[in-house]
Design a protein that fits this description.
The complex is a heterodimer of chains A (111) and B (115). Chain A has 111 residues and is mostly beta strands. Chain A has strands spanning 4-7, 10-13, 19-25, 31-38, 42-51, 54-57, 64-66, 76-78, 87-94, 101-102, 106-110. The radius of gyration of chain A is 13 Å and the shape is globular. Classes of the chains: A mainly beta (111), B mainly beta (115).
């Protein structure tokens, strides 16, 4: 089992560029979520999904889009990158309210 | 909506010292509680969880936590820390309503253990 796989691990973007962070899990978990981690702020929920075709906003959704066409994949799209989106991004999955499994993270820098 | 407070932002201990990290949550109903650990450069890993039953839960690596409902607290403890426990620790909560519920994390406590 690979668990939760995130790609890329590192990325540098220029302001205004768009990109997609990939997240895939092979545990057949219905619940998937995206967090950003910033120093002193813990993990903040960006978007989450409770199953294919169902997504909802977390506490910091602005500037990000998600879709969930399959159970396995939950990509996060940055529409027009801004320096404030420089962060470490973690994808997580779980079965119902069981503990979440986290990916290794994507370290994103916006210049 | 639920919230989580971790009052200790940075804790420095010597090896063999005892550890207690505070976690308080706010939510009016039944909750599930978690402690996660993040070693430098790694992703979060589950230390322990509380869903119901015995309020004293034991996790991996000698950690334990006690759920005190009247105080809305879920403090993490370890009798004797090791240098390898240097990491950031996150308390998390979600509402136990039977379905999928968002998980809310605290801001984390950085633990530095000095050899």
């Amino acid at each position: 089992n690979a668990g939760v796989t995130q790609t890329p691990k590192f990325q540098v973007l220029k302001t205004g560029q768009s990109m997609t962070l990939q997240c895939a899990q092979d545990m057949n978990h219905e619940y998937m979520s995206w967090y950003r981690q910033d120093p002193g702020m813990g993990l903040r929920l960006i978007h989450y999904s409770v199953g294919a075709g169902i997504t909802d906003q977390g506490e910091v959704p602005n500037g990000y889009n998600v879709s969930r066409s399959t159970t396995e994949d939950f990509p996060l799209r940055l529409l027009s990158a801004a320096p404030s989106q420089t962060s470490v991004y973690f994808c997580a999955s779980s079965y119902r309210n069981q503990p979440q499994h986290f990916g290794d993270g994507t370290r994103l820098s916006i210049l | 909506a639920q919230s989580v407070s971790q009052h200790n932002h940075h804790v420095i201990l010597s090896e063999a010292a005892s550890l207690e990290l505070g976690c308080n949550y706010s939510y009016g109903g039944t909750v599930n509680l978690f402690w996660y650990v993040q070693y430098p450069g790694q992703h979060l890993q589950l230390l322990l969880k509380y869903f119901s039953g015995d309020p004293l839960v034991k996790g991996i690596k000698g950690f334990e936590a006690e759920f005190i409902k009247s105080k809305f607290s879920f403090n993490l403890r370890k009798p004797s820390v090791q240098w390898s426990d240097t990491a950031e620790y996150f308390c998390a909560v979600n509402a136990d309503t039977g379905g999928y519920q968002k998980v809310t994390f605290g801001t984390g406590t950085k633990l530095q253990v000095i050899p």
